[in-house]
C-alpha cells in the first residue's frame, strides 16, 4: 500500500537575468582589406548601491564552432577598489555565460570590472565592462533642495540634490 506524506516544498529554478547581459563582439570574420569598426565599450545597466544583482558576460561568439569548449574559470578585478566600493558576492558559469553577483558600490561612480575568462581548451579572454552605480531607490528630498520652476529637484553629477545655501 502506498504511503502518503505531506506537501513537499518546491524550490524555484534560478536562471540569470538576460536584462544585465553583455556579449563579446568583434569575433565575426571580415574580408581582407575591409575596414572593421572598433569594438564597442561593454557596459552593464545602472546598479543601485543597495542592489545585489547578477550580471552576465556571454562569450559564445568567441568560441563559436568549438562545440566542446566552454568556460573553465572566471576571475574579476574591480577599479576603484576601496571600502564601500563595488564587491563581488559570487561567480557562477552556465556553458558560455559567466554570471557575476555584485553588491554595494558608491553612488556616482562608474566601476571598471576586468573580467578574465579561461576556457576548457585553453583560450583566455580579458574584457573590461563598465558598471555605473547610481542612487535609484527613492530617498527623501531635503526642504532646502534647489528645484526648477516645474518642481523637479536639481542634482549634481553624482545624483545628489543641490541644497540652497551650500
> How helix-rich are the residues, as a percent range?
under 10%
Largest sheet: 4 strands, mixed
**CATH fold category name of the largest domain:** Immunoglobulin-like
Number of strands: 8
Task: Give the overall pLDDT as a whole number.
Answer: 85
Q: What structural class should be given to the helix and strand makeup?
A: mainly beta
How many domains, as an integer?
Answer: 2
Q: Give the termini separation.
A: 80 Å
In N-to-C order, the SSE pattern is EEEEEEEE
Write the layout of secondary structure elements.
Layout: E1 21-23, E2 42-43, E3 53-58, E4 71-79, E5 87-94, E6 97-103, E7 109-119, E8 124-133
Parallel strand pairs: 1-3, 2-8
Antiparallel strand pairs: 3-6, 4-7, 5-6, 7-8
Amino acid at each position: 500500500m502506498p504511503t502518503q506524506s505531506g506537501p513537499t516544498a518546491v524550490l524555484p529554478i534560478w536562471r540569470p537575468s538576460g536584462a544585465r547581459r553583455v556579449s563579446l563582439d568583434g569575433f565575426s570574420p571580415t574580408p581582407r582589406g575591409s575596414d572593421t569598426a572598433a569594438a564597442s565599450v561593454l557596459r552593464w545597466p545602472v546598479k543601485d548601491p543597495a542592489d545585489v544583482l547578477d550580471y552576465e558576460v556571454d562569450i559564445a561568439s568567441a568560441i563559436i564552432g568549438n562545440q566542446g569548449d566552454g568556460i573553465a574559470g572566471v576571475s574579476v578585478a574591480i577599479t576603484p577598489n576601496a571600502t564601500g566600493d563595488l564587491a563581488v558576492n559570487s561567480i557562477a558559469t552556465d556553458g558560455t555565460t559567466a554570471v557575476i553577483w555584485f553588491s554595494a558600490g558608491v553612488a556616482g561612480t562608474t566601476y571598471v570590472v576586468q573580467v578574465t575568462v579561461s576556457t576548457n581548451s585553453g583560450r583566455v579572454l580579458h574584457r573590461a565592462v563598465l558598471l555605473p552605480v547610481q542612487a535609484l531607490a527613492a530617498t527623501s528630498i531635503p526642504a532646502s533642495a534647489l528645484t526648477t520652476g516645474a518642481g523637479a529637484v536639481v542634482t549634481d553629477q553624482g545624483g545628489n540634490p543641490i541644497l540652497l545655501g551650500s
